[in-house]
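Incident review: delayed structure delivery

Summary: a single-chain prediction request sat in the queue longer than the usual turnaround. Root cause was a stuck worker, restarted by the on-call engineer. No data loss occurred. The affected request and its eventual output are reproduced below so the record is complete for anyone auditing the incident later.

Affected input:
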Amino acid sequence: ELAAAMRQRFPKSALGLYLEGKVRLLSGDTRGAIDTLTRAHKRAEEDTRVLATLASALAAAGEVDAALERADNALAINDGHVASLLLKARLLIAQRRELDRGEQILEAILSGEKQRFAATGEIGWAFLLRARLGFIRGQHAETQFRFPGYFEDRVGIGVRLGVFMKLDRKSEDVAIEAQRAIEVRNHQVGPLQAQAGVGRRCTHGHQ
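Output delivered after worker restart:
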């Protein structure tokens, strides 16, 4: 409603279209998001937010090559646009192609020249993607699961839970980690989902 109101008030602005497209994407209307964000891009061709969100919508629709192209368009405008870098790395890793390039992008965000542009949440996503890359390469033992300071109780917990589930560790181990995560972040769904997975694995469906 707010996005629609903004479009009515500022009919020539790309911002209203951008916000509407983002809302559509978040609500699961992928095709509607692509159409709306494409119109926003035509009005603001240099807006990296629009390009990055359009790339995310294309990725959600399974149009990987088009998504990568839009991410590259955003990076051509601003090579420090971390959201586009993360999307590009995520797609390369998910498609299991150019894994070395994906790793280079993540390292640039975590400890290289792009780190100064990254928000805390973006750093967290980079850690998680690096862990996923380790799984794909079979480097379970070498993946770093503990992170200093802020990330220990946020990203680190999520990664450890994922590690235990993927390596099929004992249900008791997962339960312990899930409880630790709940104690730290009692409003997050991830730890609760892990606990549900433990119950399912133990065939205690009622739990």
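Verification: Residues 120-136 form the longest helix (17 residues).
Action items: add queue-age alerting; document worker restart procedure.
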